[in-house]
Amino acid sequence: MFDSTPNPDIYPSVVRVIDDEESVRNSEAFTLRVAGIDAITYESAEEFLDKDDLRRPGCIVLEVRMPGMSGLELQQEMQKQGIDLPILFLTGHGGISIAVLTLKRGAEDFCEKPVNPNRLRETARKMIDRNIEERRRRLRVEGMLERWRTLTGREQEVAKLVASDMLNKQIAVHFSIQEHTAKIHRSNARKKLEVRSALELNGFLKDIGLL
After folding, report:
1. Which residues of 39-70 are buried (b: 16+ CB within 10 A; e: fewer)?
2. What confidence score (pLDDT) does residue 96 get?
3. Under the phi-then-psi rule, with left for phi > 0, alpha for psi from -120 to 50, and beta for the rest, what region is 194?
4. Which of 115, 68, 109, 72 is nearest to 88 (CA)?
5. Is a pLDDT exceeding 80 seen at residue 189?
6. Is the dihedral of CA 107, 109, 112, 114 positive or negative?
7. What is the largest CA-CA distance in the chain?
8. Which domains does the chain have, with CATH numbers?
9. What is the pLDDT of residues 7-51, one digit of tens each?
């Protein structure tokens, strides 16, 4: 999707309303806009994939059945491309089986048309907030990984042992090095990773998936 996660505090959020019926998508977009929620419309899944600025956080309000690529097919394509926007499915051709399928595939919610305006706004706000927070989390982890990669191989090894609450003396024995050398590696790792304690280091490595 992106070379790196776009900063959600730089790009303004927006709801993408995708529906082949012009009157429906314009009505849904208007319902969102009067509540102060920015919305743009697309008449097809293909138009969304071709024109949308994916750097903008937000969500998608998506019709299930459309000519060409269906809403379900767009959901699959988004997963293939790593597009992280949460989806609210809307349809006038509802059914429990379709609802269950979309939710199993990761959709945020499913509503039959005409959707209650308050529910549309409330769900859209929740999806936008979740997408922004998730992008912030990924940005934080990407920054942590960059700091981790500045460590030497030995510093990384020492950091993992420190995170498991191993003492300098034990680390020195483990690597057959002087305790003073173990202290230096530990100090270098702590400074580069910007952590102050073994507990913080443990949390750091958990966040980047190494513990």
Report:
1. bbbbbbbbebbeebebebbbbbbbbbebeebe
2. 62
3. left
4. 109
5. yes
6. negative
7. 75
8. 14-139 (3.40.50.2300), 150-207 (1.10.10.10)
9. 999 999 999 999 999 999 999 999 999 999 999 999 999 999 999
Which amino acid, residue 184? Answer: I
Tell me which H or E stretch contains 112: strand 109-112
CB contact at 8 A, 117 and 31: yes
Q: What is the DSSP string of 118-170?
A: HHHHHHHHHHHHHHHHHHHHHHHHHHHHHHHTTS-HHHHHHHHHHHTT--HHH
93: its two tokens? 């051709």
Of 64, 54, 52, the residue nearest 19 (C-alpha): 64
* 126, two tokens: 């929740």
One-character DSSP codes across 57-73: -EEEEEES--SSS-HHH
pTM of the model: 0.86
The residues that bridge with 63 in the sheet, in sequence order, are 90
